[in-house]
Amino acid sequence: TCSACISLAVIRGRSGLKPVHPLSEGLWLNTTPLVTERLKNTSAGNSTHTGWEEGLQQLVLKQELRHQVLANICSKYQLGSWDQVVSKTHMSMIHVEDKSRLLYCEVPKVGCSNWKRVLMVLAGRATSVLNIPHVTAHFKNKLRKLEEYGPKGINQRLNTYTKVLFVRDPFERLVSAYRDKFENKNDYYHSLFGRPIISRYRANPSQEALRTGDGVTFREFVHYLLDPQRPVGNDIHWAKMSTLCPPCVIQYDFIGKFENMNSEANFLLRSIGAPQNLSYPDYKDRNPEDERTHSSIMKKYFSQLNATESCLHDVNICVSPCLLIRQFFLTTVTFAALLKCS
């Protein structure tokens, strides 16, 4: 049947292995750029498969285009190469699901909570994605990271498992992180980040604001991001996606878009042979009363910035003489280019 012959083989290229630099204890990585194979032997057994096959064709073509754009951007901006060593930092963001032979690179604020729920079900650690609390999904999921394996296990998984990355408009993601961590009650972020941000970037802050860290404005948050001598370190919720999951270093077989999460995540699940009753859960468990951040909301926040600050949200300006902005956001070009692919 059609469903039996559909797999990620239509997305990932088949090629030989080639060693990377002899660091990281001699890890090996497939260094031939990924290519999308044409559909092979996917004729429908009956008309009920026609819609699925048409959707499959479209998604395969999108994957092909994204990989082509990615290769061009990586080359143009020299953002890394496929013969580079995969570092411990990179591997710490990659979740391993051995039963489905899946490697998922986690990018916070790009649907990672729900992806962890999906991985827990695939691994047999939960029976449904709908009854996994947020704390369990993040801190009690018992999912393994790629960094936990030895060199042989890392090499084998990097070269034979389906490697998955979902991206999001980098500026939507930035606004989403700000809203989640600073507009809502969050003692940890308000204390660790809010207090030093207010102290450094607000004129005449109140003692209450300095004590609690509550009420960080979006402008203050942006100033913190652009400050080369910021008063407190970075955080993965607004760290650059290309730092967390470098697409110019690791060849991801499947690159999905947050904006199309339902269709693309479920296509991926069907392709790897996930149970038919398992679907990506489209719900927001943190601050569910808040509207999910989208382009209109993003524009509303960036409209609060002045001319110098607001050049931040124009990707074209990221490679212009806005030096601080270029320094911090240059590698968002990679993802922004991918997001322009339909």
TrEMBL record:
Pfam families: Sulfotransfer_2 (PF03567). The keyword Glycoprotein applies. It is a single-pass type II membrane protein. GO terms for molecular function: sulfotransferase activity. Transmembrane segments: none annotated. Keywords: Carbohydrate metabolism, Glycoprotein, Golgi apparatus, Membrane, Signal-anchor, Transferase, Transmembrane, Transmembrane helix. GO terms for cellular component: Golgi membrane. It comes from the Eukaryota. Its EC number is 2.8.2.-. It is found in: Golgi apparatus membrane. It is an enzyme of class 2 (transferase). Belongs to the sulfotransferase 2 family. This is Carbohydrate sulfotransferase. It comes from Labrus bergylta (ballan wrasse).
